[in-house]
Design goal:
Two copies of one chain form a homodimer.
Chain A (H helix, E strand, L loop, with lengths): L4 E6 L3 H12 L1 H8 L3 E7 L15 E3 L2 H6 L5 E4 L7 H11 L3 E4 L2 H17 L4 E2 L10 H8 L5 E7 L2 H13 L3 H10 L8 H4 L2 H15 L9 E2 L7 H9 L2 E12 L2 E12 L11 E8 L3 E8 L3 H17 L27 E8 L4 H11 L4 E6 L6 E8 L4 H14 L2 E10 L3
Parallel strand pairs in A: 1-2, 1-4, 2-3, 4-5, 5-6, 8-10, 10-16
Antiparallel strand pairs in A: 7-9, 7-11, 9-10, 11-12, 13-15, 13-16, 14-15
Helix pairs in contact in A: 1-12, 4-5, 5-10, 7-8, 13-14
Chain lengths: 428, 428
């Protein structure tokens, strides 16, 4: 048995406490699997005296996570504070400079600074692992970086924000409007302090950008993820989609195209009977496609103390076992910069709008689509309200550019009331 | 860049050819991800002159896989011949003795000899990896050994034989009897040379035994997997199950109980709308449950050139990257022997039988169940044929021992025609 693996844990929120519990309660199992003792040396958090429901005696305390990261008696710095910048980034950089390996659950920090952190770590001969940053307990970083390493990855897809999926499935099940379910989710504590991180698709976009970097050997490029949140999804859209055999999901898609890397995180219609369509509540699913393996999908809890701590422990044990894999599965200095390709792949779209109730209105809309080169798969006028005719159109496959042209054309017709809704229908 | 990783490939069937193609066609990608060149030095197969659709020039040829395994110019012996004993086992042992790492897709060899092979490899400081042996391209060995390493595993479940799942889904979809679909599958080349390996549950049982060893830190114990094949599943059972909202799957379950390790591979009823119930055709799904992570499930192609070669490549790349994980995730000498526990966990059962059509017959069956301590959830007499009354019963949870007692009791009543069918209903 070699030397113990000594951990310094910064951040004692839900996940940090989960990690402490596992290390305390499963010493024998961890030692057997790691081939050495896994030991917590020191911890750091904002408030020392808070009762966290788990004893911290026997661990040194540091008020400053940077000081924790630099302690000579730790081998692995476990960053569970969160935040793209500030203490998390400072301490991670300090840990690398001090020759520590890093395990982190911090998707924001890596989505924004992953390239420079990975380069620094590799220059220092250290590793950064981040299984817990993507899809909670599902070992998807591992599946992609290692399990599919023999594949040219052709597509990465996923529902990776449990809060959004909870809101969308609850809207459908209870027939409630977005605002009401959002308030429920807030009351249940499901939302980030800044809820836009969840419902605006930012958190899920961070995760997608990380997976794309691994999949395509590119520098993580969150800045070019096309982001669209779920805030504008109405109960009408959910009902209409259901009538047509679809469900609306906040779906991430990353795909390399001839024009560059396409990364989207946006509401999409997917078949209701597909594995992604059937995903309920806070569950996450990631779908990976490779030229050799075909399609594999991984499903599980995307958040929570146990699942996230499980992912953190997986990284810790791997480091203890001697794994020295690079952050993105290739040397960071060799990762390519790519052109972003905005919605390069054509798709059918779901369109919903209200037309003024007068003769020829529908014909003008059809003409605007025709002028943009878009053909119609299905069109229906659902019912007449006073002076307003709700219309739903499903197009054949079209480019986003053509669709935008058609949407402009709609405005020019003068027959559309309010803003038309356009949601991509993704082939999953 | 360090030295190239040099492979010796024994077996050039579907999977071997798939591996050769990937190594030939993706040299740059593999080198970037592995951190070194991946190179095939030598190959071995039964017939040298056969056209396999891929050039073998530049590789040394060995008629004898043992000679291949011992070549000084290979680092990794890639065993893709199959067969629990004979050349595969001889060559694997020779490779270990000669100081080579081993990558294999051979579930039978490892299910029967995994313990001794792992001990030999670890004594020699070598590794044996076998991602391709379980569920084709799905990285489930990795997910369990590494991704869930921080968990006490609570249950492993899976549909892991694509041929059986193809037969069962085809029977339901086409309304065809077992014999007819079996003949179809044979004609399509879906069956092993000895079809009992597939339809008798043996192949899937091998896979389950391997996963159980990793999950519970126990010596692989295929001999105590309770095996039951799909040969007796009738179209009537599939239809009746469907009427009640279930599908029949050849389902493996491994679970540690107070009485020992329970390992079952047998037809089970699962809810038709569950992810396992919805699994179509040759697709595999493995469900892993851990105390921290909860339930995760992994889905993908369970066989075929691309998926299986993808899994083999994953192991090769991991070895090239320096991973030295032990075969079962813990030192082989520390793996425990456990008692087998036959169907230790109680479950509801589906029972179908034909009763002689005379007064009191059903009452005698109900009495036999009552005497065995089994209560009835649902019972129905589906229709009357000439002199025979088909009866379907769903019990409440019961032990297998009590059920066997009841089945004996049925015989004693003298009112049951033929053999009653009893299928476990698994909570998934």
């Amino acid at each position: 048995m070699t030397q113990p693996l000594r951990l310094g844990i910064a951040g004692l929120g839900t996940v940090g406490v989960g990690v402490v519990k596992i290390v305390r309660q499963k010493a024998g199992l961890l030692a057997a699997r790691t081939g050495r003792e896994v030991r917590i040396t020191a911890v750091s958090a904002r408030a020392r005296d808070k009762d966290r429901g788990v004893p911290l005696d026997g661990f040194a305390w540091e008020d400053d996570p940077v000081a924790l990261a630099q302690r000579p008696d730790i081998d692995v710095f476990v960053e569970l504070m969160g935040g793209a910048d500030g203490p998390a980034r400072d301490a991670t950089e300090a840990a690398i400079a001090a020759g520590k390996d890093v395990v982190t659950a911090n998707k924001a920090m890596l989505a924004l600074h992953g390239q420079s952190l990975a380069e620094a770590a590799e220059a220092a001969g250290r590793v950064i692992r981040f299984e817990a940053a993507v899809a909670g307990g599902i070992p998807v970083v591992k599946a992609l970086t290692e399990g599919l390493a023999g594949n040219e990855v052709t597509r990465v897809m996923g529902v990776m924000n449990g809060t959004c999926n909870y809101i969308l499935t609850r809207m459908e099940d209870a027939g409630l409007p977005y605002e009401e379910v959002f308030a429920e989710a807030a009351a249940l504590g499901y939302l980030e302090a800044d809820p836009t991180l969840d419902v605006g698709g930012i958190d899920a976009g961070h995760k997608l950008a990380l997976l794309a970097a691994i999949a395509y050997g590119t520098q993580v490029d969150f800045g070019h993820v096309e982001l669209e949140g779920i805030q504008k999804i109405s109960i009408e859209d959910i009902r209409t989609a259901a009538d047509m055999g679809y469900r609306i999901k906040l779906l991430g898609v990353a795909q390399m195209t001839g024009r560059g890397l396409e990364q989207r995180m946006s509401p999409c219609l997917v078949p209701a009977d597909s594995p992604l369509g059937q995903l309920q509540g806070g569950t996450n699913m990631v779908v990976l496609e490779g030229d050799a393996v075909g399609q594999i999908s991984l499903r599980g809890a995307g958040a929570g103390e146990g699942p996230t701590a499980s992912a953190v422990m997986s990284d810790i044990i791997e480091i203890g076992r001697g794994s020295r894999i690079t952050t993105f599965g290739q040397p960071a200095t060799g990762l390519k910069r790519t052109q972003p390709a905005r919605s390069a792949n054509p798709a059918p779209y779901y369109l919903r709008m209200a037309l003024v109730d007068k003769p020829g209105a529908l014909a003008r809309i059809a003409a605007a689509l025709g002028e943009a080169g878009i053909s119609i798969d299905r069109m229906r006028q659902t019912r007449h309200d006073s002076g307003s005719a709700p219309v739903v159109i499903v197009t054949h496959k079209t480019s986003r550019a053509a669709l935008d042209l058609a949407l402009e054309g709609f405005t020019d017709t003068g027959v559309v009331q309010g803003e038309p809704v356009a949601i991509r229908i993704e082939a999953v």
